[in-house]
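Class, look over these structure tokens:
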Amino acid sequence: MSKLWSGRFSKKGSRLLDLFNASLPFDRKLYKEDIKGSIAHARMLAKQNILTEDEAKRIEEGLKEIQKEIEEGEFVFDIEDEDIHMAIEKRLIALIGDTGKKLHTARSRNDQIALDFRLYVLDSNREIISKILNLIETVLKIAKENTSVILPGMTHLQHAQPINFAYHMLAYAAMFKRDVERFQSSLDRNNYSPLGCAALAGTPHPIDRDFVAKELGFKGISVNCLDTVSDRDFALEILFNISVLMMHISRLSEELILWSSYEFQFITLSDEYSTGSSIMPQKKNPDVPELLRGKTGRVYGNLVSLLTVLKGLPLAYNKDMQEDKEGVFDSVETALISLEILKETLSTMKINRDKMQKASKIGHLTATDLADYLVKKGIAFREAHFITGRAVAKAEEIGVDLSELPLDELKKIDSRIDEDVLETLSLTNSMNARDSKGGTSINSTKKQLLFFEKWLEEIRG
């Protein structure tokens, strides 16, 4: 059978062109969206008396039969059909005859693919949001069980101040919350139907774009057809949103890798989500977080690739834009499995609280507290900083943490230090002293936990 657009051509295209030009090997993924859009379009054409009710009914029944064939593996995909739109339309004509040729009235492949791809991206936004919410729920569960577990808070990967493990995990809850909000914002901003824009300039047929938009669940229609058929901002946005999400996942993954090492031993990853070595029998490798860290670079590449494709294109549609889908498909699938396996990795890991507590007694985490204590005694901060430095040096000399330095040694360094300093140097007291909003005290951490739990409940509702 000749290609549906071949009327003005006198020679058949080469097989090499078919292989190079076709998007069917990957855009066949959009068959559901294509059929859904075509059914809505046929119903609109009937409503506008462009098709008869009987013609629209036959088209809809034919499209549903095609969907069944695809899902049951009976549909024959032919590279000569170029893309999923032409493959479905050709099969529809074969099933119901010339009536099938009327489906494309008042429609172009340009607005058809813009519709299919947009529907896919919007649904993917929703699916990713759902997976992030599940991940946040797991993070909050871990936090709720560990509000009093002290570990070293770090800057420059050096021990800095004592914090609690729940507080550390809630930092990631905050990141993932922002991710949800980004996907929600994109979902809202891009929820407009492109169908009816035709090739680039609209159509002379008396169509009802608003009807189609409502049928397909959009909140409205796009404003300018020239922009609409060449707009891939929605694809760029999901790629960017996934890139930021994966960056957050990668940061958490890096900490899981560090924490599971012998040098830290803060956590033990479950055997279910660890692998071994082909040569070293003793190894238990954190391959899940390592792969998550690695896949982040992959989704970055997909974003940069599409930005590069689009940057020099004149209006409106250009064939270059066929390169818009594979990277999006890949990034969406990467994000979905990454969110799922990270959730399971976190929910099955063991938290070694004693190791965290022990590590908190390395690095003199309460040094800032001693300096603040001295300032409250009326000593200038620069002098307090110097006195504290001497106290740290003494603690290292005798091999103890500053929090364990005997009172008599502290008084030798400065006589203005009193017995109440021992409360100040306590790791727990140091942590709980940081009770400002957003701080690491147990009280503040529990308030943050309640905030996230309330937000999660509201957004799910």
The chain has 19 helices and six strands.
